[in-house]
Design brief:
Distance between the termini of chain A: 32 Å
Shape of chain A: globular
CATH architecture of chain A: Roll
Radius of gyration of chain B: 17 Å
Mean pLDDT of chain B: 86
Number of domains of chain B: 1
Helix content of chain A: 25-40%
Mean pLDDT of chain A: 88
Number of strands of chain A: 8
Helix content of chain B: 25-40%
Largest interface: A-B, 40 and 50 residues
Structural class of chain B: alpha+beta
Low-confidence stretches of chain B: 1-25
Largest sheet of chain B: 8 strands, mixed
Number of domains of chain A: 1
Number of helices of chain B: 5
Oligomer: heterodimer
CATH class of chain A: Alpha Beta
Strand content of chain A: 35-45%
């Protein structure tokens, strides 16, 4: 079945190759290449525990929403969290399977927005364990491609079971 | 069903990037999500009233359902058994703040027949309630409908199951 989700997602990747089409709400598909590059660079910085570099890719008011409903707001708070998480996991690989992305842009009363939608498998690993789970992430970007927000949707059951104390609370 | 779907989507993926400017083909396009939202709500309403039989009429015979712990339930009969358990345990409601995105496309199946597919994606808080507890969690779902009669052929949910696993004496999705 994991193959199926990859295949389904490939169709989304294909859509990203099409000429732009807008839905009735004015949302349009965009080439996600630049957004993927920022996202990958951000994850690379995290995996090398380079919090300073990762933090530099966040907007001042960046937020990170977790699947348990916890939201961390502000670049400083997010950076502190990232420092703690990088102490627990030596690797957080969000491309451990066939990850596929879709770029979407639109506008609302606050102005234009653009997001990167990602589906795939993520692997969390340290010396004690390795956990791989289906993963969906929505990443919001500013006009100059700083990360303005991240929302991760995935099952934390195995992750929580591995923690002495849940760092996301 | 899975094989047909696989070929269908793979062919799109291959062709899509080679002819990016094609607009008169069967490439998927964004559509108004309203009709698919209605279908999804009808299915959920049936389940919330315990009418699994009615809910199942909207599923394809070879439908499958992927859960965020990697468990997959395959076939209408197996899905019916699963839904009988879950619908007796939970009343499920989506937030008014839920965002939807939908697209459609079509391709030929192995028999050379034209098959239409439509995909509904949603993001928003979802609440699971019973007499004992209420669990509200961020939720993302992908539902793929096939054919002119919009049979639900595949769906997947991305959400945190931690509170559910804590609640269950024995995990019902395994």
């Amino acid at each position: 079945m994991k193959n199926f989700i990859t295949i389904m997602i490939l169709s989304l990747a294909m859509i990203g190759c099409q000429a732009p089409t807008a839905d009735p709400n004015g949302r349009t598909l965009i080439d996600p290449t630049d957004l993927i590059a920022v996202s990958d660079a951000f994850n690379d910085a995290l995996n090398s525990a380079d919090i300073e570099t990762a933090s530099s890719m966040l907007s001042e008011d960046a937020s990170w929403a977790f699947p348990n409903g916890v939201t961390v707001e502000g670049r400083e708070a997010v950076s502190e969290l990232l420092a703690g998480v990088s102490q627990i996991w030596t690797t957080i690989d969000q491309n451990s399977g066939d990850t596929v992305h879709l770029g979407v842009t639109g506008s609302n009363e606050d102005g234009n927005w653009k997001v990167l939608l990602s589906w795939g498998n993520a692997t969390y690993a340290n010396e004690a364990t390795s956990i791989t789970i289906p993963y969906h992430q929505v990443t919001w970007f500013t006009e100059d491609n700083l990360i303005a927000g991240i929302s991760g949707l995935y099952d934390r059951t195995e992750l929580v079971a591995s923690y002495d104390e849940d760092p996301i609370k | 069903m899975k094989k047909i779907i696989s070929i269908l989507f793979l062919s799109f993926a291959i062709i899509g990037c080679e002819t990016p400017s094609s607009q008169d083909s069967d490439f998927p396009t964004f559509i108004d999500s309203e009709e698919l939202e209605g279908l999804a709500n009808t299915i959920q309403d049936a389940l919330n009233s315990g009418d699994v039989e009615t809910a199942l009429t909207y599923y394809a015979d070879e439908a499958s359902w992927l859960f965020p712990n990697g468990v997959e339930v395959e076939g209408k009969e197996a899905i019916g058994e699963m839904l009988t358990t879950t619908s007796s345990m939970w009343d499920v409601s989506s937030s008014d703040d839920t965002n939807y995105l939908a697209f459609e496309g079509s391709d030929e199946n192995e028999e050379g027949e034209e098959v239409r597919f439509r995909v509904l994606m949603s993001w928003g808080p979802t609440t699971f309630t019973n007499d004992d507890t209420t669990i509200t969690i961020p939720y993302h779902t992908v539902q793929v409908f096939f054919g002119e009669d919009n049979k639900l052929g595949w769906q997947s949910g991305f959400y945190d199951r931690t509170k559910f696993v804590e609640y269950y004496d024995e995990d019902i999705i395994k």
